[in-house]
Design brief:
- By secondary structure, the chain is an alpha/beta fold.
- The protein folds into two domains: 9-37 and 169-265, Rossmann fold (3-Layer(aba) Sandwich); 42-165, Rossmann fold, CATH 3.40.50.10090.
- It is built from twelve helices and eleven strands.
- Strands 6-5-4-7-8 form a five-stranded parallel β-sheet, with helices on both faces. Strands 2-1-10-11 form a four-stranded parallel β-sheet, with helices on both faces.
- β1 (9-12), α1 (18-27) and β2 form a beta-alpha-beta unit.
- α2 (47-58) crosses α3, α3 (69-78) runs parallel beside α5 and α6 (117-124) packs parallel to α7 (144-152).
- It is elongated.
- The two termini are 16 Å apart.
């Protein structure tokens, strides 16, 4: 019996659960190339987590914004003081942050209208922020758009990175992925995090003709995106995702990809 992804070569860039994603795709018949691009690396000696908790303990923090579930998990793994965090009004950007907070025994009072910086700003615009202090969990880089938008509402904003992203696969593996895309040896590629997108494009720009690489992705590869932020990163890079499941999880992503190829074969 034919399976939906029989004969389809899928590249995955996932680092946290590559084996599980590979199994899901292979059950559908896909041939999988796993090339994790980035991994979450805690700030050295957990200094980011310790600074985050210290700010909560020693400063009047009115709101805390959690961007990622990984950030929540790493925070409480390093310094297990959810009671200190719970003193503030908590906003979670999306479902992963919500679930991680609940695992720590914290129920967020606010969830962003959409899992984007714009969604956070819209949600907080309904709060009285003048004179308030907002602590934001970052992940390796500043977020000037959020900072500026909240400052315009009269808030003081403090950003602290709990972790940063570092390269997950060796340079040769990434080079092989880029060249397989150019040689039309990849039929689909999955992106499960927005940070994977600019990283792959920067790597490709250093290895091959940038215009040719982008053209190949647009024309010959089915680009799969999980989450609004990831889709925005792809569009910013000039690539429109062809598959984007409504539920931003691996299972629905694989199902959506299988349905895409079933319709194409019909």
């Amino acid at each position: 019996m034919l399976r939906p992804l029989d004969g389809i070569r899928v590249a995955i860039t996932e680092n946290r659960y590559p084996d599980q994603l590979t199994q899901l795709l292979e059950r559908m018949g896909a041939s999988v190339l796993s090339c994790p691009l980035l991994k979450e690396t805690p700030i050295e000696d957990s200094t980011g987590a310790r600074r985050f908790i210290s700010i909560c303990e020693n400063t009047q923090i009115d709101y805390i914004v959690f961007y990622t579930g990984v950030g929540v998990d790493l925070l409480f793994k390093a310094v297990n003081k959810p009671d200190v965090v719970s003193r503030s009004r908590i906003l979670a950007r999306g479902p992963k942050a919500v679930n991680a907070l609940k695992r720590a025994g914290i129920e967020p009072q606010l969830v962003a209208d959409s899992a984007t910086t714009e969604g956070i700003v819209r949600t907080l615009s309904r709060e009285a922020l003048k004179g308030k202090t907002i602590l934001v969990q970052l992940y390796g880089q500043e977020n000037p758009d959020l900072h500026t938008a909240l400052q315009k509402q009269g808030a003081t904003v403090i950003g602290v990175s709990i972790y940063s992203y570092t390269q997950a696969s060796d340079t040769q593996a990434i080079s092989d992925l880029v060249n397989k895309i150019l040689r039309k040896e990849i039929d689909a590629i999955t992106f499960t995090s927005a940070t994977q997108v600019p990283f792959l494009f920067r790597a490709a720009d250093a290895l091959v003709n940038p215009a040719e690489f982008r053209a190949r992705l647009k024309k010959d590869v089915v680009v799969v995106s999980v989450g609004e932020v990831t889709s925005k990163a792809l569009r910013d890079a000039g690539v429109e995702p062809r598959v984007a499941p409504e539920e931003p999880k691996m299972g629905p992503m694989v199902k959506a990809l299988a349905e895409y190829f079933e319709k194409r074969k019909a």
